[in-house]
Amino acid sequence: MKRVLCIRFANWPIQCLRHHLREIASTSTSLAIHTAPPIPVDDRQKKSSLDEDTRFIRKLFPAAQGGPAIVAVSPDAWAKGVRPGMPLAEARSMAQPIAVNVTRRRPSKSESATTAPSVEFHEWQPERDRKVLKSVAELTRRYAPIVGLDDVPLPDSLLLDITGCGPLFGGEAGLAESLLRDLRQAGWSCRIAVAQTVSAVWALTHAEFARRPDANRANLDRRRPHRSVSESMLHELPIQIVPQGQHLAEINGLPVSASRLDLNDLEILSHLGIRSIGQLLGLPREDLPARLSANAILRIQQLSETIDEPIEPLPEANPIAATWSSDEPACGLIDVRHILQFLTDQIAEQLVRRRMACSSLSCVFKCNDGSLVPLNGSVVKPTQSSELLHEVLCLRVETEGTLFALEDTLFASGESGGDAAVSEEDMKSRLAGKVASLDSQPFSVASMTASVAPIPVARQRDLFSPAEHIVPQEELATLITRLSGRLGASSVLTVRGHADPRPEFSQLCEPILPQDPSSVRQSTLDTSLRRLIEPAGSTAIDSPAMVPRPLRLLANPQPIFSSAVGKHFPTEVIVAGKTLLLAEFSAAERIQTAWWTDQPCHRDYYQATTRSGSRLWLFRELQSNQWFLHGVFD
Amino acid sequence: MSPSAIRAETIQALRQQLVSSTKPQSSQRCIPTGLNSLDRLLPGGGLPTSSLIEWISDDAGQAAASLALRSLSPMLALPGCLVIIDEQHDFYANAAVAQGIPLSRLMLVRPQISTTGQSAIHGRSRFIRRTSISHSESLWALEQSARCPGVRAVLCWLDRASSAIMRRLQLAVERSGVTVMLVRPASVLSQASFADLRLHVKASDASEWSQQPQMRTQQQRNLSVRLLRSRHGLQHDGTAHLFQNPWEEQLCSC
User: Fold this and answer.
1) For A497, which of B94, B116, B177 is closest by C-beta distance?
2) ipTM, interface predicted TM-score of the complex
3) Quick check: A428 and A394 in contact, CB under 8 A?
């Protein structure tokens, strides 16, 4: 059975900041973090420029929408009255010590010594928080094969799949204690829970007083005025292990806020009087979609174990890389293929050892004249196969002009992983203005770096059904990999409709395999593959409108040079080098766009039939009265 | 064994191969196109899967490709995608929707058109072949797609291809189960065919055209399809008549 461990770092932004301040030898303990002042931008730009964390904070704290607001505070700052959600100006005034009239009473030496230091305000850096959390994940690698972040805004937890790992540490309790010890030694304060599902461990670590919720909640209000804030922030039990099958009973009493629902959904549930997860799970499922968002339905299904929730693994920090070097320089495509084979074999060996798969490869050849030749390749489905990886790179090498064209892509791919042999700065400086070809330039060093991804779940072949029942997704993935490898990712496309009256802009072609595979999640690629393979349904037609349109449409309309002007029809048109005599025109279809669009269009379209029966799509530009051929009804 | 016995055995083996080659392969399955008159014409009552089919038209614009798409749309009820090899970068997918092709099942392969090739755009026509590099890349992509079991069908405009290429395609589809449809010009009629089916599409022409083009109310467009060759024997030596509704582009059977 699956076992999941969650490490929750309470007040993570403050812990992160403290960690950063320790590095620069600052000892301040009274800390507050505030958001950056909003930049006045266009509304359309606003949504795209803001990251997910900032949007969440602005939704959570309305004060952050108008100006800088407090995101997190340390216990000392809390004691001074600074609270999350407070505008920065108000927080600064709260943190200022009140000026006391010295004539009335002069503070004693002991009092002045014990006066709390003033609050230090720092700007919030969510990207740094995420980066540090990922670096902390490296400390936990030895405890679990899969380590991931929780997929909520402002992540403050790590998720570990520890299925089968407990006996290696004397049981799950031993594992959790050892892990806690390691993290504390590294200076992190955290809480750990082990249970059967991701949703259960997340709820247990994110709900205060998870052990005895009802009793503790009753005590909470009574004790709160007398307790220090630091105490309320700390959990009484840093480790909680829920035996197999008892997690639902454990989380039933927890507050519904521990169920990872969106703020809007929580508000709706609050209005309905739903306070605990048990009450939430008790609601009739058929009524939920009408009231709650799709994300809430997903979370509820994950809580009730209707659907599984896999952990999205974090890639390991140290890259998988291989290097080839020789005193005797290599030259020519045959040598390149041999060296690529050597490098991909080494990469595949490391992948097998680490139980990971490769999603893209980046290779750099260092020529003897100092120039560098990059070579990149990607696969649709992550693989451990050295044969496939080698084939993808060889296809790229074989394409004429590839090695020249890929010069620019080197810098884009530089982020995916460091180069073991040649530093990036060195690479950039040497590549500037230089173009090299492996076919003519001898080289003595070649290095390869792999971007890793989890091994895709193996799909078992159907032994007993006819071949038609097998969904050959893997074969299609291999085909797309090969086509993209040789022709380029921009040559293998999917198509979708686009609402634009101009025919040439009414379809969007998008590459299946992106230029930078790391920018797209594997699940997105899998969904694209599944859509291509699987029949959508009975008669699912994507576009409802079926106006007559030609099957072959010229990207640039071809002008018809004819004596006909104005409303007189042209008599002939040249198609595929052949002159066709036009015989019949249909009634006009006017396509017109508004004057404020970028490329306004004022055209009268006609279906023209030639004397041989061919049908063409012609239009007359209304402003210039010029005729154009725009398509062929092939 | 005597030479005569060996010869007799060889002849017998060749005869068996000949007989077996004229029968539909076990892996092939005929899927009705939904166009009754065309189905009546085709051996097996539909287009065979795992086959190579040529659609030939005298000129561009005679609806050969539309007919090919219309007839393969029932095949997309089976798993697998439709690959369009679009060497000229002019395939307009929205028009394929009218022939029953869902866009979500469509994969478009557009080899890069190199501007440094031996021939660029000449004359006034956009439809002139641009470069031989993109043509060879298209042929390569066509063969790769034809070999992939994850693909249900491939559609490609193919003007010229050597016998070796056609033979490779034939072997690829037999192995993978993919249906390859080639839209070809009438100039290939004089060449030997490696296709399972060769169909000739012709739009109706009239002789009473006036010298100057006229504007007319759009009539339905009549098409005729002749089965020129079938690897498994000609069932009927006839012609299928179809028409196309001018406002919906939907092909219908007469």
Assistant:
1) B94
2) 0.80
3) no
Q: Which residues of A touch B150 (CB under 8 A)?
A: 472-479, 533
Strand B106-109 relative to strand B81-85: parallel, antiparallel, unpaired?
Answer: parallel
Phi/psi region, residue A613 (left: phi>0; alpha: psi -120 to 50; beta: rest), is left
Q: Report the predicted TM-score, pTM, of the whole model to 2 decimal places.
A: 0.61
Contacts of residue A615 in chain B, CB cutoff 8 Å? 61, 63, 203, 221
Judged by CB atoms within 8 Å, which residues 47-106 of B form the interface with A?
57-66, 69, 76-81, 88-98, 100, 102-106
Give every strand in the sheet of B52-57, ordered side by side: A507-511, A492-497, B106-109, B81-85, B151-157, B179-185, B52-57, B197-203, B221-230, B239-244, B251-253
| C-alpha separations of A168 from A43, A164, A171, A174, A242 in Å | 54, 8, 7, 9, 19
Q: Using the beta-carbon criterion (under 8 Å), do B221 and A615 form an inter-chain contact?
A: yes
Residue recorded with tokens 């005590």: A219
DSSP one-letter code for A517: G
The answer to whether A473 and B80 have CB atoms below 8 angstroms apart is no
CA distance B190 to A606: 35
Report the 10 Å Cβ neighbour count for A596.
6
CB neighbour list of residue A416: distance below 8 Å, 6 or more residues apart: A360, A362, A449, A451, A516, A518
Tens-digit pLDDT profile for residues B94-127: 888 888 888 889 999 998 775 544 333 333 334 4
Contact status, residue A196 vs residue A2, Cβ threshold 8 Å: yes
Q: How many CB pairs under 8 A join A and B?
A: 256
DSSP notation for A393-411 = HHHHHHSTTHHHHTTTHHH
> Which pair of structure tokens corresponds to residue B205?
């022409």
Nearest CA in chain B to A549: B95
Distance separating the N- and C-terminal Cα atoms of chain A: 58
Inspect the interface and report whether the beta carbons of B95 and A632 lie closer than 8 Å: no
Q: Do the bridges between strand A191-195 and strand A4-8 make them parallel or antiparallel, or are there none, so unpaired? A: antiparallel
* Positions in chain A whose pLDDT score sits under 50: 44-49, 101-105, 107, 109-114, 209-235, 400, 402-436, 466-470, 538-541, 544
Q: Does B160 touch chain A (CB under 8 A)?
A: no
* C-alpha closest to that of A616 among B88, B59, B97: B59
A486 touches chain B (CB under 8 A): yes
* A400 contacts on B by Cβ (under 8 Å): 114, 133
A7 and A190 Cβ atoms separated by less than 8 Å: yes
Nearest-Cα distance to chain B for A286, in Å, is 30
For residues B254 and B239, give the distance between their C-alpha atoms in angstroms, rounded to a whole number. Answer: 12
